[in-house]
Amino acid sequence: MTLLDGKSLAMNVEQKIIAQTDYLKTQGIIPKLAVILVGEDPASCTYVNMKIKACERCKIDYIDKKLSQNITQTELLDIIAKLNKDKDIDGILVQLPLPEHIDTKVILEAIDPQKDVDGFHPFNVGKLFAGLEAFAPATPMGVMSLLQHYNIDVRGKNVVIIGASNIVGKPLFSLMLNAGATVSICHALSRDIGFFSRTSDIICVGVGKPGLIQADMVKEGSIVIDIGINRLKDGRLVGDVDFENVSKKSGFITPVPGGVGPMTIVSLLQNTLFAAKMRKIKKTF
What we know:
Layout: E1 2-3, H1 6-26, E2 32-38, H2 42-57, E3 61-67, H3 73-85, E4 91-94, H4 104-110, H5 122-129, H6 138-149, E5 158-162, H7 169-178, E6 182-186, H8 193-197, E7 202-205, E8 223-226, E9 230-231, E10 237-238, H9 243-246, E11 252-253, H10 260-280
Parallel strand pairs: 1-11, 2-3, 2-4, 5-6, 5-7, 7-8, 8-11
Antiparallel strand pairs: 9-10
């Protein structure tokens, strides 16, 4: 069994980002990310702080906008409109989830697709599905980078994605399909997840259910990508996979924490850097 070490890989990628950021600055381009946080949800605050610290490590400038839980949708749209027009801003990130009184779809669609470094705008979603150049959501992008780093070729592989969210499952489906994999996707209405997982070469799971994937649900030598993250009552962080037992059968497996998580953050920075490069050459996609 080989651990897919996202933490070490992310550190290596950060060094490359720093080098590219330094070069862009010699050309008069300072990569800059706008991070918007609405409210004080503890998990969201933690994620935003991790992203900001990553920006600092990689010398990427940023604007940190912490907004009231009670901000109106119109006020939030006005802020996004101003950031869209700001020529010094390369990427705009709105931390999810948003309060219930704000329509998430409306907010995501308001972001300029050229600054949509989260890859959630329908424009980028459509281009990604079509196999065209576009921003890919950070977590699926991180999964693909991790597989590539370990020389795991998905072409011709049977892949099951468990979890059909717009943020992870659906875009990961597109990336896997575009890379030549044969892909199945399971969701809340799927009757027998094990039927799909036991015949898959690669299992990707991210639904937020500890221990969902057990050893009898995977075949010998399979590649297991655990995207889930859950905090147990004793304070431990675990994924959606029974790591102790599944790791005994798998050929490759991601740990939680230290697997996909670090790659998600560094992929966001890669998207921001890409947006800055497009600004340098004044190119749209």
